[in-house]
Write a structure and sequence with these properties.
The complex is a heterodimer.
Chain A lengths: L19 H31 L4 H10 L2 H36 L4 H4 L3 H8 L2 H14 L8 H8 L11 H28 L3 H16 L6 H28 L5 E7 L9 E11 L3 E6 L4 E5 L3 E6 L12 E2 L2 E2 L4 H9 L7 H5 L6
Antiparallel strand pairs in A: 1-2, 1-5, 2-3, 3-4, 6-7
Helix pairs in contact in A: 1-2, 1-3, 3-5, 3-6, 3-7, 3-10, 7-9, 8-9
Chain B lengths: L1 H32 L8 H7 L8 E5 L2 E2 L3 E4 L2 E3 L1 H12 L8 E5 L5 H7 L4 E7 L2 H4 L2 E17 L9 H5 L5 E4 L3 H8 L4 E4 L2 H9 L7 E5 H10 L4 E4 L6 E9 L3 H19 L5 H8 L30
Parallel strand pairs in B: 1-5, 1-6, 8-9, 8-10
Antiparallel strand pairs in B: 2-3, 3-4, 6-12, 7-10, 7-11, 7-12
Helix pairs in contact in B: 2-10, 3-11
Classes of the chains: A alpha+beta, B alpha/beta.
Keywords (chain A): Membrane, Transmembrane, Transmembrane helix
Keywords (chain B): Signal, Transport
Pfam families (chain B): SBP_bac_3 (PF00497)
Chain lengths: 353, 314
């Protein structure tokens, strides 16, 4: 990839740095190894966690969970994290790359940081794909952050909109007006609800996007490169924990006709994940742990339940899309708007057992 | 030259500041996404109530009030019953097997709540200051006014409060009701009996015992639904209203809050033009017998809670 104003490479002849084509080829191999390997490892880890650490339960899950379903479930939950990682790496990398280009004789110019090197060798389609996945999967509240990230990743400064001042200002004004039209009602609601972070995350990014492209002084770039790269990698590791612990199978409550010595009403609600169903029995991985084999003729009803993690924190909407939904989720809710929680889910939380 | 250098420095400073602020904002978003909701959730509230973990919800109801709660062919029907079923389903008790309806006489409603005989009462329970010292109320879910019911033969003769003041007309009321005090306030002499049914029986079976009966419009509408050809409701401007609420033990504020929340959800659905449990209950029971289109009154003291379906389009 060629960053604006970065036609010549920062790596001087005679350095030990291999040429760009070779590095791209190596990077491509590493990239596809990561794309295939990381989800596979995560999937196995997830099954282990889902089974509650029990070897036999893990084996039961491995035997019954379809690999395609497992991969699809992983993509559903990990796409947000993966795109956040890519966007952060490319945006920060581009800023550092621009800084190293601007000061070739400084330390950062002679030793471009890791993220800067990644940004330089990453093809533009990968960067664009990262942003596209982020646009579709990030919570709407955080989408404004993509503006400065996009401006940074492509070093897209307002000067590139138009060389002439007036048309440039007109285009910028139009873009800002469009953003304001979209976000002002939400911004006002956030202000009234005293949601300081929401106000900041809606109002600040368009302004930051105008200022963020361009090099930063080497004296700032060096410490920033070291701390931010470490912080991003650490945050990615930290944020990947929920991906491992997110259940693979959907949470259900199964109403089972109990034995005669059971409760007065003769039924029992089992809260857990259905591993498999066949003619003989329904195999349920209970939420509190353990596997139950329920004879098929005793199952009276089965309902799907939401989990605590799906509770909203904000009461804000952008044009009727809840700010904690991603665009994909928001559109999904338009297709199936009613999501009533079934009564059986209320009466049988894990605390009741 | 100096100008260009200064502009370059300002530009560097602005970019640096913007980069740092963007990073801080991104880090803030990372932390924010892990934050727990500030408001309590419906599930948390439910876990604080005394009913959590119970296999059945015991609901105190009336079984002798036509349109509101009445036993017909061994099945309870009525507006109160439908509201009770909606609340029960919202609390996690859906279907007849999860609900135990307990028949309660009017005077037993408060003792039944206090003694723990029932979990909630949905039985034309008016919210009054006196009662609020003994039990909690969620609601109101209905606002009723005072009306007068007359035999069809007197329909054209009794039309105003002034007509009722005529000593020739004998106006019957149930004892100890707010109706009695209201009629007295308007200078209307009344004949007091034990309950409204006695007034209606007196007007039907023993000819000329009473000429009019006054009570809540819902109760009168119920009797009119039983004898539609015999009686007519006269709309008089008494000016008082009664708010019907769901009775909850005073020791269980979480349950009161939850019921108020679910009544409010129904209220919001009705306001947004969609059908709501309240509207369905109203149209199936009271609607055909009351004048004019009614709307659910907004419940009072509704707590702010979060629930799983909050993200759904409004």
């Amino acid at each position: 990839m060629t960053l604006p104003g970065r036609e010549s490479t920062t790596f001087r002849a005679g350095d030990r740095v291999p040429d760009l084509t070779e590095r791209r080829s190596r990077a491509s191999q590493s990239f596809w190894t990561l794309v295939v390997g990381v989800p596979a490892i995560f999937s196995v880890l997830r099954l282990g966690v889902e089974a509650g650490g029990e070897l036999q339960t893990t084996l039961l899950l491995v035997a019954n969970v379809n690999p395609v379903n497992l991969a699809a479930a992983l993509v559903t939950t990990a796409a947000r994290l993966a795109s956040a990682g890519l966007v952060a790496i490319f945006a920060i990398g581009a800023v550092l790359a621009a800084s190293s280009t601007a000061a070739p004789t400084s330390w950062i110019g002679r030793h471009p940081p890791l993220f800067a090197r990644w940004r330089v060798i990453a093809p533009n389609w990968l960067v664009a794909a990262g942003f596209a996945v982020a646009l579709a999967t990030w919570p709407i509240l955080y989408l404004p952050l993509l503006l400065p990230a996009l401006a940074a990743a492509f070093q897209f400064s307002p000067d590139r909109l138009d060389e002439r001042r007036v048309p440039r200002l007109l285009v910028l004004g139009g873009l800002l007006a469009g953003y304001a039209y979209l976000m002002l009602p939400t911004l006002w609601d956030a202000w009234q609800q005293r949601e300081t972070f929401a106000v900041l995350v809606i109002a600040a990014p368009p302004v930051l996007a105008l200022l963020v492209p361009g090099p930063i002084p080497p004296i700032v770039a060096r410490p920033l490169a070291m701390t931010v790269q470490l912080a991003v990698l650490a945050m990615l590791c930290w944020a990947s924990l929920p991906v491992i612990t997110t259940p693979v199978l959907p949470l259900t409550v199964t109403t089972v006709r109990a034995d005669s010595d059971a409760g007065a009403d003769g039924t029992e609600d089992i809260r857990g994940h259905v591993i498999t169903v066949d003619d003989v029995s329904t195999v349920i991985l209970e939420e509190r742990g353990g596997v139950r084999y329920v004879p098929a003729d005793q199952v009276e009803a089965q309902v799907l339940c939401p989990t605590e993690g799906e509770l909203p924190r904000y009461r804000l909407r952008v044009r009727d899309f809840h700010v904690e939904d991603s665009l994909l989720e928001g559109m999904g809710r338009r297709v199936r708007p009613v999501t009533r929680v079934d009564a059986a889910c209320r009466a049988t939380s894990s605390a009741a057992r | 030259m100096i100008n260009a250098s200064l502009r370059g420095r300002v530009r560097l400073l602005a970019t640096t500041t913007a980069v740092v602020l963007t990073l801080l904002l991104a880090a803030g978003a990372g932390c924010d996404s892990q934050r727990e909701p500030d408001l309590p959730s419906v599930q948390e509230k439910l876990e604080q109530t005394h009913i959590f973990g119970q296999s059945k919800l015991r609901i105190g109801v009336a079984t002798y009030e036509p349109l509101m709660g009445v036993l017909e062919n061994n099945k309870l029907v009525g507006f109160d019953i439908d509201i009770a079923r909606y609340i029960a389903a919202s609390l996690g008790y859906e279907g007849e097997s999860a609900i135990q309806f307990v028949h309660l006489a009017t005077e037993d409603r408060i003792p039944a709540l206090q003694s723990g005989q029932v979990d909630i009462v949905v039985s034309s329970f008016s919210i009054t200051e006196e009662r609020q010292k003994l039990v909690s109320f969620a609601g109101p879910y209905f606002v009723t006014t005072q009306e007068v019911m007359v035999p069809v033969a007197l329909k054209s003769k009794i039309r105003t409060i002034e007509d009722l003041r005529n000593p020739n007309y004998r106006v019957c009321v149930g004892g100890g009701s707010t109706t009695e005090a209201e009629l007295e306030k308007h200078g209307i002499k009344t004949l007091v009996v034990k309950n409204v049914r006695d007034c209606v029986d007196g007007m039907r079976n023993r000819k000329n015992l009473y000429d009019a009966v006054s009570s809540d419009e819902t109760i009168l509408a119920g009797f009119r639904s039983m004898y539609p050809t015999e009686f007519e409701i006269v709309d008089l401007p008494f000016g008082t209203s009664e708010q019907l609420g769901v009775g909850v033990p005073i020791s269980d504020p979480a349950l009161r809050d939850l019921i108020a929340y679910f009544l409010h959800q129904s209220y919001l659905a009705g306001r947004s033009g969609k059908t709501s449990p309240w509207l369905t209950a109203y149209h199936q029971n009271l609607g055909p017998w009351l004048d004019g289109e009614r709307e659910q009154p907004p419940p009072l003291n509704v707590p702010e809670l979060v629930d799983f379906d909050d993200k759904a389009p409004v």
